[in-house]
Write a structure and sequence with these properties.
CATH class of the largest domain: Alpha Beta
Helix content: 25-40%
CATH architecture of the largest domain: Alpha-Beta Barrel
Number of domains: 2
Largest sheet: 8 strands, parallel
Strand order of the largest sheet: 4-5-6-7-8-9-10-11
Strand content: 15-25%
Number of helices: 13
Distance between the termini: 22 Å
Shape: globular
CATH superfamily of the largest domain: Enolase-like C-terminal domain
CATH topology of the largest domain: TIM Barrel
Length: 328
């Protein structure tokens, strides 16, 4: 049976600005895919990211380039061979997983030999602001189990210390988004240790991480921009102790699951993260998140309006989407 494919761009306003070292975001710009076969519809979402050479135009064109094959019945394995890792492949891969689950009436988690979903502790992210403003924001979420602090190279210690004072019990992740150099990293070791930071995410630019060879950090260092797919793992050894798996980098759940297993076998600690997106982008990531030590999937919590039936923050835990929302 032939399929019908819909690909579109959506702009999802945020309730407040999201600031990182690269700039400020006021809306989530997402690609949404729907793949219909008979009465069943599979859905997927992704976020084009300029840091990886992507734009909305390029990602829409990549997805469109496989319209004929997808409508004729292309599966996930062929998709991996036809499209490079990235946002276009992620949206299509998610739609195929969802469609397969609906056609077979077998949930994605069953196909991965895992139990159904339970609520998970996710990091709640503090975007860059003055130390005083970040402390005020941290005080409002002080009961969170895990807080992620966005910083740059300006006053990172002051920002981290302000958040720690305002949220003394929360576990902390610090994310400079490639804005530090090795000297900054070395100088900040005492401040990171005093704050009890649990994980430091991509402090150096990915193309400068040779500087991490032989460096002993007081806090485990996590590869984000430096780790996209399983093929990246060999060069991460000796530089990083953890990896951040994001489906927009791996090109979907199919490769993310391979990366998870390979990284575990190599002894890396696992973090699962996301772009700022809706619950449709988060639902496939939850399949990997249940296997992770650190979870950072609060993207939909930044939206003014998320999809009905999407994830919810309840009692400090991220509850999965309603049954039938995606993959089950």
């Amino acid at each position: 049976m032939l399929r019908e494919l819909t690909i579109r761009h959506s702009s999802l306003p945020l309730h407040s600005p999201f600031r990182i070292s690269r700039g400020v975001k006021h809306a989530a710009e997402v690609v949404t895919v729907e793949l219909r076969q008979g009465d069943c519809v599979g859905r997927g979402e992704s976020v084009p990211y300029p840091r990886y050479g992507e734009s909305m135009v390029s990602v829409l064109a990549q997805a469109e380039s496989l319209r004929r094959e997808l409508c004729a019945g292309m599966g996930r394995d062929e998709l991996q061979a036809r499209l490079e890792p990235g946002a276009a492949r992620n949206a299509l891969d998610a739609a195929l997983w969802d469609l397969e689950s609906k056609l077979t009436r077998v949930p994605v988690w069953t196909r991965l030999a895992r139990p159904s979903h339970a609520p998970l502790t996710t990091a709640l992210t503090l975007s860059i602001d003055t130390p005083e403003a970040m402390a005020e924001a941290a005080a409002r979420i002080a009961d969170a189990g895990l807080i992620k602090i966005k910083v740059d190279a300006t006053e990172p210690a002051a920002r981290i210390e302000a958040v720690r004072r305002a949220a003394p019990a929360a576990a902390l992740i610090v994310d400079p988004n490639e804005s530090w150099n090795i000297e900054t990293l070395r100088d900040l070791q005492p401040a990171l240790a005093r704050a009890g930071v649990r994980l430091l995410e991509q402090p150096l630019p990915a193309d400068a991480d040779d500087d991490l060879l032989g460096f002993s950090s007081d806090v485990p260092i996590c590869a984000d921009e430096a780790c996209h797919t399983t093929a990246d793992l060999p060069r991460l050894r000796g530089r990083y102790q953890a990896i951040n798996i994001k489906l927009d980098k791996t090109g979907g759940l199919t490769e993310a699951w391979r990366l998870l297993r390979a990284a575990r076998a190599d002894g890396f600690r696992i973090m699962v993260g996301c772009m700022v997106c809706s619950s449709l982008g988060i639902a496939p990531a939850l399949e990997v998140a249940r296997e992770a030590e650190f979870i950072d999937l609060d993207g939909p919590l930044w939206l003014e309006h998320d999809h009905a039936g999407g994830v919810k923050l309840e009692g400090g835990l991220l509850s999965p989407p309603a049954p039938g929302f995606w993959g089950g």
